[in-house]
Amino acid sequence: MSDSSLPALSALPAADRPDVAARLRDALLGASFTADGLLELLGAPAYAALARSETVPAMRATRGDTPLELLVRLFLLQQPVPYARVADVLPVEDCLETGWLVRAGGDELAATVDVRPYGGPDGEDWFIVSDLGCAVGGAGGIGSRQEGVVLGVGGASTTLAGITVRTPVGSALDLGTGSGIQALHAGRHATRVTATDVNPRALHITALTLALSGAPAADLRQGSLFEPVRDGETFDLIVSNPPFVISPGARLTYRDGGMGGDDLCRTLVQQAGERLNEGGFAQFLANWQHVEGEDWQDRLRSWVPRGCDAWIVQREVQDVTQYAELWLRDAGDHRADPAQYQARYDAWLEEFEARKVKAVGFGWITLRRASSAVPSITVEEWPHPVEQPLGETVRAHFARLDYLRDHDDAALLDDRFRLVREVVQEQVGLPGAEDPEHVVLRQNRGMRRATTVDTVGAGFAGVCDGTLSAGRILDAIAQLMGEDPVLLRDRTPAQVRLLVEQGFIEPAD
Is the dihedral of CA 309, 315, 321, 325 positive or negative? Predict the structure, then answer.
């Protein structure tokens, strides 16, 4: 199928009729068209398959005639349903008038958009609106090559929502809002939410998502990057799941940034600093190039704007062939003409070769506006499993940086610490050996880090209950081990700092 033969995007429901959205929301909730209701109806396997855009199990599970089955076929499976049955469940004439539904021939009706239940972090019943057939965003083989298509919630969307710091703020900016999922989350803890997108269709769909979810309206502005932000306007929180794909050209608005290489992500990060209030966070998902002869960590450090602390985590790396194949499949190019697929594949590799790119990294970037004279920039690779949500973990990371900056070694030893909950100790060695080869402290929550410690470090962490100062604990350890307490105090603060920095121990106060 050529791009020119793709069907036109459907007309969208009216975004200026919150009264109809409210009635539609009440009807959907009344029929248990919620995340919990879907799970109960479909069962775990079919529910999980639907999240992968596989509809056959859900089709088999909705062959009955209950209101919930009808709504699943209508809004999730894009199947026409009889007018008379819909009229028993939804405010049909209102939905027809405002464009949520259209006549599909005969006495049947069809949906104009995908409406997908989404459970909020505190049990809220939200609904994410997206273009038909595009409810699951990201590299899952959406197969839509239409430039203005708006995707729903995918793995990238939920990852960003999970890592975002959720402290109450006065203002939040969702840059590149798409279907509005980040704006929806921000509305829970921000007094004012601004959402931007270069695609006017995305702004329209965001308005529908917020209205149908019963959430406050956002200030919607069209434009690229920070263009829609007014001169001097700053925010307490900026989030963005940008079109970060490094591609030759900009075929798809939802994923291709339209700048060379990783310039869009770099520009986004570099321009964010001046848009943050003091203490404010900016959090992004991003791709970055691994260039021959260049340290990728140095590349990312150069992106961090002045006046900001940063924590950058690389979660995955793909070689250029894997990366090209991933995003060619995302657009459905593998199902197109073989010669066209090969030409596009070759264009990706040609672009990477010209830029001397050997691999592409994916991960999270968090900035925090700070007044410190010496900013802290942490760039690390962490491909291991983590426990979402991580927003509190991110906030605590920067709080620990502040603590360590404010405490020299003498102050550190005068303070009291406690072992963080869910940290366990593992001893590794040969069976029957008198002493372990090494001791590992492991977190069972958050980043789930593990660190190897020596005998002193293990003993120190095990005694930290907030009662004794670090110095007094070390003095006791020195006495038990027959060491000079002064020498032990001199060589241990670096290990204590590491345990604090990585979140194994925390100040007792």
Answer: negative
